[in-house]
Structure formats: structure tokens, C-alpha cells
């Protein structure tokens, strides 16, 4: 009989978790921390930004980059902020010149904040490889950041790595039809790979279909470690070191509220 506890689990950083903002976040984060998973909370609209900032943990603040409503200019990151985002390009549901112009405008606004504050960015990209590369090349940022929940191919990954970005893999890598992404998971260099959940979306196998939780990042990390032929402990150590570097958190994402590990 041996209860699972953080003391025998390698530390993992879930680099992309959206807060629910409905009073359930603290229990979810405490559960993760008790299992050796620390979290970067990611906003993107007003409600999520508020919930992320209120958690007292490292968080990213962004504006809704794909919404059609005008943006009122409010962007007031507080001292806990460690990134801007998520931001980016997605032409899955809509595409064409108008969509591209809207998303490029939002991208410019958010990257201006990142530039002014010297913060890394969290980038979403889906069916938008060329526009994303073009925008990142033109952004002239003092820090890079991460391409989150990457779903592209090795050729796209290579170009992003050349620009200095880290690449984060979500539970999608465990899905049955994700062979191309598993090739990417094997290809990524040791010093440029991160893991995430994208909670509440994309729960990994064997939790697929449930609402995702940061504690489930361990399933994704285990799957990738296996693909790369390394022990989970070694893979956890390198992704944690990468997250610390990407988001410049030498404290290893500790928060004042965190349980003792
Ligand atoms: Zn997200």
C-alpha cells in the first residue's frame, strides 16, 4: 500500500491551463500541486484574465484575439504576469482576408505589450502556418515564447525552432490518429520541448472525453517520454527546466499558496 504523493513524482509544469473562474480553480490547482504539477494559468479574455490573476500564480494575460468585438484598450497586467497570450492565428473556423486582418491587428496589439514589458508570448496557431511565421518574423520581440498545443508537422516545427520558440505538446499527442504529431514529439530537441494540458480541453488518453485537469499532464509526459525512449524522470526534468527558461521563472513556478513538495 503506497499512496501517490508528490514526494515520489517528478515535478512537471503544465504550461497551459485555462482557469474556469467559477470557484473550482483552487481545488483543481491544489490537486495538481499535491501531485507534483505546477501550472501556468493562461487568460485570453476578460473573465479568464481576472481568474488567472486572482489565483496568485504565474499567469499569462491576453485579449480575445479571434473575437469580432472591438477591444477597449484595457490591458493591465499585474506583477504576477509572466507572459502575454494566448494570442495568434486560427483559420480553422473562418479564413479569408478579413479574418486575417482582424487576427493580425490583435496580434500587433498584444505583441506591442509583450515588447514594451519584455515578456514572452504564448502563441496559438492552427491552419495558419505561413501567416504565423510571417507575423512572428515581423514582431521584433525581446523575448520569444512558446507555440502551444502544437499540431503542425516537423517542417513547421523546424522553422519555429529557428526563430527561437519553444514548442509545447498537449494531450493530442496521445490520440489515436496523431501519428504525425508523435513524429514531432520524437524530433523536438531536448532543450525546446514543453508539455501542457490546455485545460479544460484536450484531455489525454486515458482520460480522453473528460474535462481536462492540470494533474493529467503526467499522462502526456509519460507518452512522450516513452516515444523518446527516456525515463519519465529525465523527461520531466528537462521540460521543467525548459519551462523555467522559456518563462524566466527561476523559482520553478512556485507560488505563495503552493503546498510544500
Ligand atoms: Zn489555450
Largest sheet: 8 strands, parallel
Strand order of the largest sheet: 1-2-3-4-5-6-7-8
SS element count, helices: 8
Indicate the percent of residues in helices.
Answer: 25-40%
Q: Tell me what the CATH architecture is.
A: Alpha-Beta Barrel
Q: CATH homologous superfamily, by name?
A: Metal-dependent hydrolases
Provide a descriptive summary of the structure in words.
The protein has an 8-stranded parallel β-sheet with strand order 1-2-3-4-5-6-7-8. The chain has one domain: TIM Barrel (Alpha-Beta Barrel). By secondary structure, it is an alpha/beta fold. The chain contains 8 helices and 8 strands. Helix content is 36%, strand content 16%. Helix 7 packs across helix 8. The chain binds zinc ion (ZN). Zinc ion binds next to loops.
